[in-house]
Design brief:
With 188 residues, this protein is an alpha+beta fold. The chain is built from 9 helices and 8 strands. The strands form 2 sheets. A 4-stranded antiparallel β-sheet has the order 1-8-3-6. Strands 2-7-4-5 form a 4-stranded antiparallel β-sheet. It starts with a helix and ends with a helix.
Length: 188
């Protein structure tokens, strides 16, 4: 669990008391590959830290391939965050692509951490800022770059996607068909 403290301390120094309170609320859970953590229409009640695994965020489609819009890897927090903070049903699904180990906080526990610790609000604000920046960057890439440019950006910005994610999910993430991704890969 100490790796979570190290991750948090990249942003802000934690006192032992704050860490003890925070860590006492974490629950370790293991999930097999292809487990739905959040279904469309379900309210997200957890903020999770990924010790091990890959998490995929997608909009399910009945008639064609799902639309994948994000991934989370080892060493990062994950959640259907909009649902988590609003307590409204999620409009997308969250699934483990690989076996995963998550350290989870409930919404109620996080609210208590905000109130009871000196650092809780800072950690929450920094996490929200990180999520906003990632979302904004992704939106701009979809508006401003070609599919080939988005694919090439993955090599420098997120090489773990290229190495660990099935091509059908990569294609969806980039916003193209698997066949179009194959053509791009052949050209490069």
């Amino acid at each position: 669990m100490e790796f979570i403290r190290k991750h948090l301390e990249l942003s802000a120094k934690l006192t032992n008391e704050d860490w003890d309170f925070f860590s006492s609320r974490l629950i370790r859970e293991e999930f097999p590959k292809k487990t739905l953590l959040v279904k469309t229409g379900q309210v997200e009640n957890h903020l999770s830290f990924v010790e091990k695994g890959i998490i995929r965020f997608y909009i399910p489609k009945e008639e064609k391939n799902d639309t994948t819009f994000s991934f989370t890897f080892d060493g990062n927090f994950t959640s259907a965050y909009e649902s988590f903070i609003t307590k409204m049903p999620s409009s997308y699904q969250v699934e483990t692509l690989t076996p995963a180990i998550l350290w989870r906080l409930t919404h109620a526990d996080l609210q208590e951490i905000y109130v009871q610790t000196g650092i809780g609000n800072t950690i929450g604000r920094l996490a929200a800022e990180r999520i906003y920046l990632e979302t904004s960057k992704r939106e701009l890439s979809l508006l401003d770059q070609t599919a080939e440019q988005r694919y090439l950006s993955l090599f420098t910005e997120q090489p773990q996607l290229i190495q660990k994610i099935p091509l059908k999910y990569l294609a969806s993430y980039i916003g193209i068909t698997p066949q179009a991704l194959s053509r791009i890969r052949k050209r490069i």
